[in-house]
Amino acid sequence: MHIGYARVSTGEQNLDLQTDALEEEGCQRVYTDELSGATAERPGLQEAMDYAREGDVLVVWRLDRFGRSLKDLISKVETLKEKGVQFKSLKENLDTTSSAGRLQFHIFGALAEFERDLNRERTMAGLRAARARGRTGGRPRALSEDDLPEVQALMRDPDVPVRRICERFEISKATLYRYVSPNGERRYDKE
């Protein structure tokens, strides 16, 4: 059985072009969504994927109607494959029922993996370069190295309430105790 899926991003767009193409392709059932592709939850797509059984073919008008990204697309097609369901995209002429279509899809998968590896390499190179320039990532420290001796001295003073120390340095009690023990000892190096 051929099952169709169509999606438009806005209310101004019309599903007719897609549904007509899917019906012309021989889809006996067509599921639709009228919402942005950036939206993760698409009830029509979920229904189509749930309905599809082994031996069925899920057909879309264009790849971008099916997946939000190459990674998402590959994940969805793999999910279909595990169920024994084939995939077909009309505009891109991608059809996993044929060996050429499966090869084309594997090339997409290899390109997606290559893209992930490149992004990871770029990120790591950027982090190394930033560290070499003395920059560190993450959230700024709640207490600076310059503040710690004063905080330790205040913690040792029995006349100064913890609440006042927290107010003075604009930190919570939990943050204070991450840096300094109740007796004023430094807990560990936060750098």
For this structure, what is the CATH homologous superfamily of the largest domain?
Resolvase, N-terminal catalytic domain
The tally of helices reads 7
Rounded mean pLDDT score? 88
Rg, please? 28 Å
Principal-axis shape equals elongated
Protein name: DNA invertase
Organism: Longimonas halophila
GO molecular function, one term: DNA strand exchange activity
Keywords: DNA integration, DNA invertase, DNA recombination, DNA-binding
Characterization of this structure:
By secondary structure, the protein is an alpha/beta fold. It has 2 domains: 2-109, Resolvase, N-terminal catalytic domain (Rossmann fold, 3-Layer(aba) Sandwich); 139-191. The chain is 47% helix and 12% strand. It is built from 7 helices and 5 strands. The chain has helices spanning 16-24, 43-51, 70-82, 99-132, 148-156, 162-169, 173-179, and strands at residues 2-8, 29-34, 57-60, 86-89, 94-95. A 5-stranded mixed beta sheet has the order 2-1-3-4-5, with helices on both faces. Strand 1, helix 1 (16-24) and strand 2 form a beta-alpha-beta unit. It is elongated, with a radius of gyration of 28 Å. The termini are far apart. The mean pLDDT is 88.
